[in-house]
Amino acid sequence: MRGRPAGSRALPHRWGCVAGWCWAPRLGGWRGGFLVVLPPEEPRSRAGLSVGANMAAALRSAGVLLRDRLLYGGSRACQPRRCQSGAATAAAATETAQRARSPKPQAQPGNRKPRTGILMLNMGGPETVEEVQDFLQRLFLDQDLMTLPVQDKLGPFIAKRRTPKIQEQYRRIGGGSPIKMWTSKQGEGMVKLLDELSPHTAPHKYYIGFRYVHPLTEEAIEEMERDGLERAVAFTQYPQYSCSTTGSSLNAIYRYYNEVGRKPTMKWSTIDRWPTHPLLIQCFADHILKELDHFPPEKRREVVILFSAHSLPMSVVNRGDPYPQEVGATVQRVMDKLGYSNPYRLVWQSKVGPMPWLGPQTDEAIKGLCKRGRKNILLVPIAFTSDHIETLYELDIEYSQVLASECGLENIRRRSLLMETHCSRRPWPTWSTHTSSPRSAAPHS
């Protein structure tokens, strides 16, 4: 095993990684991460479905894993390896100009100056239907997510054409995405737990960094710099790594410092994936068992578990993106935990356009199962950690209501998303392990 240096000079982008410990050649060795799992409230019913997306007001217990320091900075800055060439688009320059205004601070309880910041990275979603076009325009201009001919012209055109359809979908789920609300609740519970577990790095403050809606990642970094943090953790909210999601967010951090022409004043660490963390797997398994209990006893063993993940274009997969393998690893670990008690499939949703994407598609799999008389299905969103348009509209309405009625399904349910904390406050390596004895922890699988 190669040795692990104490620091690094640049924010890493694409790493080879297993279960939270990542081999980072540019940084000279293995690097690790941490996981905080937060509780839902009791599930609520939505049109006969188990949505279960509410979070309990108090954090009952959780596991935290944070290993090894990654220092962003040093005597010189190195450009990270990119998901694809030309990722610094004209859109990035436009966003930099727009950020000249001072964004609204992400207010949190307490008035102590924070020492450690956790930047919660995600795609984000429009909170109102009026924000949909701007959201889509940023999305279609992101070359880490997709490449289009004359993208600076075609991207805005596609966004404008798709806006009315997507606005109607958001109206059907209440008028906007709840992802910011849930991320805030997760962040509040996370920093409360970290203040308790790691007082020597407290106070902790969470920051929300979205790619396509406010607060944008760049706006969050500006606030972190103004707060004068000692250290910062870029914490992806995607359990499985993809260049199109986590990679895009990490590129945004790099581009911010490159464009403003200065080095960060805080020491950065990165948690870029956690697909097979035991706590994550246990929470998936526990939720699935609870949902299976809602099926008629005589049907329970024949329920088909459909693990549904957001699809990717095959052009991205063929470049070596690790996302499908990491999603598959999560599914395998969950089914292993369940003892392979039920038939299951890994399926893919949200395909857009005529080009080849990962398959089989979720809706086609449901139709195929119906034709074979398999009419009891449990949908498990395996790559999401909070509700948004893909779960609340696509899974809950398009598939579980409209398609289920057309196919004549007997029972279809969706597993809730936010993880419960009865997955325990076990003696996982903690923040103090990460900061005070970085070499004492072994890779976690």
Give an account of the 3D structure.
It catalyses: heme b + 2 H(+) = protoporphyrin IX + Fe(2+). The chain is 35% helix and 14% strand. By secondary structure, it is α/β, with parallel strands linked by helices. It folds into 3 domains: 16-125 and 177-274, 3-Layer(aba) Sandwich (Rossmann fold); 129-172, no CATH class; 278-417, Rossmann fold. A hairpin with a 2-residue loop joins β1 and β2. α2 (132-140) packs antiparallel against α3, α7 packs across α9 (323-337) and α10 runs parallel beside α11. It is globular and about 60 Å long.
CATH class of the largest domain: Alpha Beta
**Number of extended strands:** 13
CATH topology annotation of the largest domain: Rossmann fold
Low-confidence stretches: 1-102, 419-445
Please render the helix and strand layout as text.
Layout: E1 16-18, E2 21-24, E3 29-31, E4 45-46, E5 49-50, H1 90-98, E6 116-122, H2 132-140, H3 151-172, H4 179-197, E7 204-210, H5 217-227, E8 231-236, H6 246-260, E9 267-271, H7 278-292, E10 304-310, H8 314-317, H9 323-337, E11 344-349, H10 362-371, E12 376-381, H11 389-407, E13 411-414, H12 431-436
Parallel strand pairs: 6-7, 6-8, 8-9, 10-11, 10-12, 12-13
Antiparallel strand pairs: 1-2, 2-3, 4-5
Structure keywords:
Rossmann fold, disordered N terminus, four-stranded parallel sheet, 12 helices, disordered C terminus, 3 domains, alpha/beta, 445 residues
